[in-house]
Amino acid sequence: MNRCFDEDASLKDLKPLPGLWDLETLELQKVGLISIDDIESKYPNLITLDLKYNRIFSMDAISILYELKQLREINFLKNPICVNKNLHDMIMKSAPHIETINR
């Protein structure tokens, strides 16, 4: 399988795919992501974002979710950020439009 990212990858490294501006669901599981910087500019219409089994640890990922106004579901399961026992509350405070977290 070809990988989209190298080790310690960020979404900044992912080139926008032509014609996917209106993409509503994005699954980036097990790709070694440490950051979701710039996701709001590449895929602003996301409704579901699945980031399971990556290496996202920074709370900056939560503040970025605010910019994804259409986002209703986020999944950070099996990322280091999940060790924060207040993760759910932090996401809801930063991005109250999100309805489902880590399911």
Characterise the protein shown here.
The chain has one domain: Alpha-Beta Horseshoe (Leucine-rich repeat, LRR (right-handed beta-alpha superhelix)), CATH 3.80.10.10. By secondary structure, the protein is of the alpha/beta class. It has a four-stranded parallel beta sheet, with no helix packed on it. It has three helices and six strands, in the order βββαβαβαβ. β5, α3 and β6 form a beta-alpha-beta unit. 17% of the residues lie in helices and 16% in strands.
Going by CATH, the homologous superfamily would be Ribonuclease Inhibitor
Q: With helices defined by DSSP (H or I, 4 residues minimum), what is the helix count?
A: 3
What's the CATH C level? Alpha Beta
DSSP, total strands? 6
Global morphology? globular
pLDDT averaged residue by residue: 89
Known CATH architecture: Alpha-Beta Horseshoe
Using only C-alpha atoms, the radius of gyration works out to 13 Å
Structural category: alpha/beta
Strand order of the largest sheet: 2-4-5-6
Low-confidence residue ranges = none
Q: Major β-sheet, in short?
A: 4 strands, parallel
Question: What is the number of domains?
Answer: 1
For this structure, the CATH topology is: Leucine-rich repeat, LRR (right-handed beta-alpha superhelix)
Helix content: 10-25%
